[in-house]
Please model this.
Amino acid sequence: MKRSERPTAIQVRNGQRSIKIRLPELQSFAEIACAVVSNHKRLGFASASNPMIGVAIISDRQMAKLHLRFSGIAGPTDVLTFHHGEIVVSAETARRQARAFGSTTEDELRLYILHGLLHLCGFDDTSARARAAMRQVQDQLLGDALRRERRLKKPQPV
Model:
């Protein structure tokens, strides 16, 4: 990163009420994920074009409206990413997927945030080949971000 460039800021907000979210923890993870993605050598993470990234956690009902409006597809989806720097994730979809995959809702939300950040770097998942490439980078960076998050949570010796 050049000295004149500032790191991209990220702000997570909860716009739904049906699922309890530990917002400070997700905010911390989002900051870590943003740093991990921007530090990855092969990614063109343009902080100049997105000086502030917003992450909105919303309901399935809200997501279904956005999904139809912007993708032409009925029903909710897990994550939508907009090139101006907005990532929208569905808490209810995260809860359903967590149950299906033996995970937690918040771990699914972490995955969706990282997935959205990769979309902002130009990755897409519209073909099998692109999906595989994105998945490979996603798995690596998610592991890096989760390890950093665990180190931050670990009590420091006095």
Q: What stands out?
A: The domain at 9-149 is CATH 3.40.390.30 (Collagenase (Catalytic Domain)). The helical segments are 23-39, 60-71, 91-101, 105-120, 128-153. The chain is about 50% helix and 15% strand.
